[in-house]
Amino acid sequence: EVQTSDGSLKTLSNPAELPDPAQIVAIREPLVTLRLVVPADTLGSILKLAIDRRGRHLDQEHISPTRILLSFRIPLHEIIFDFFDKMKSFTRGYGTMDYEFIGYAAAPLVKLRILVGGSEVDALSIIVHRDEAESRGRSVLVKLRQEIPQDAAFTAEDLAAWQDLPTFLEGEYFIPADDIPQRKRSIFLQP
Fold it and tell me: DSSP label at 13?
């Protein structure tokens, strides 16, 4: 949610909907109460995982000699991406997770914009915590640098069209389906 200077609250579903920064009073992110049941011997790694994701430890209860129930207050987007997979990895598959939406809270969030050829690509924009903006931006740029050849001259519209390439190319050109980078390059190199 974004609170603007005119007092209205606007719920966003896309970073492109974020209003002009001069009009923003506060950006509020959804928060959840996260409950984890984990083996007692994995307590340290699970606490570190949740706290690194901006979680605040609320409660800890020993439900058996080998099991612990942990409660955290954590931003929703911090658990959506890969939290569950990491938790399962740390607990060797024995951990369980449950969460409940509790509301919104103001946070220092910023819009991370990715420019390609001097133009902003809305599909690559994300809203991140101010402390994570630089590292997230660098990781996105490293991935883009791996995917886009140095000699390619793509525009922002070309990148936005990548999601439609497979259906477009099936009827037009024969390109092996297992060579995705070649498929992406070939559409832009056609005479």
Answer: S
pTM, to two decimals: 0.65
Whether residue 175 has pLDDT greater than 50 = no
Q: Which of 121, 38, 150, 128 is nearest to 84 (CA)?
A: 38
What average pLDDT score do residues 133-153 get? 76
The distance from CA 187 to its chain's CA centroid, rounded to whole angstroms, is 28
- The residues with which 127 forms a beta bridge, in sequence order, are 111
> What's the rounded Cα separation, in Å, for the pair 135 and 141?
10
DSSP state letters, 58-117: EEEEESSSSEEEEEEEEEHHHHHTTHHHHHHHHTTT--EEEEEEEEEEE--EEEE--EET
